[in-house]
Design a protein that fits this description.
237 residues, alpha/beta, 7 helices, three-stranded mixed sheet, Rossmann fold, binds glutamine, globular
Length: 237
Amino acid sequence: MTYIGVLALQGAFIEHIERLQECIKEYDNYDLDEDINIISVRTPEELEKCKALIIPGGESTSMSLIAQRTGFLPFLRDFVNDSSKAIWGTCAGLIFLSETVQGDGGGSGGSPLTAFDPTSRSNLVEPLNLVKVRVKRNAFGRQAQSFTKICDFSSFIPNCTDFPATFIRAPVIEEIIDADRVKTLYTLPNPSSATGELIVAAKQDDNVLVTAFHPELAENDIRFHDYFIREYVLKNL
Ligand code: GLN
């Protein structure tokens, strides 16, 4: 039995669990040899069972603080840094998994949050330091500037030419720190530079996937979760 966990401290974990369950239902009808079980993860005991972990979108500051205050952070850090595990971070999950996090505001259409001191807020995120990238939080601006874009992911997910990718106060990967390990999977054009591109999906080694957008919000569309299960979880068993 292979357990896939979804970190359930905060954020959009229910939607990830739903998409994963839909995958399992689909596999029941088809080909998969491996029995897969999906669990929500809040404790070291639950984490210990898992072969894979999804860190959902939400609020990376809150997620990091909850993990620190509950004493869960060291377990999480050890787990994600174990290369035999498959890991996927979406949006806040990408921020939390990164090596370096840059603060709010600015960038392409971004505006600083006025109610908080952006610098001190982003300093509160204690990144898990797994993915060798520098991310910028809220790179597309505020909640109201959220958008869904139909993306062609067929260069890494066969035939997936029309996936609805939702960006909600999304980060971007501004710099790949270790280009031997981190490969860009998808970029959006950078509106503030004619030549530049914004990296919004990447993979590190064979076991770590990060996306700035929310594939779990594509209701009844399991193509991205199927990709994670087949290419990251099952290939690393
Ligand atoms: N902007 C959020 C953060 O900094 C992430 C938003 C999301 O996960 N949708 O944590």
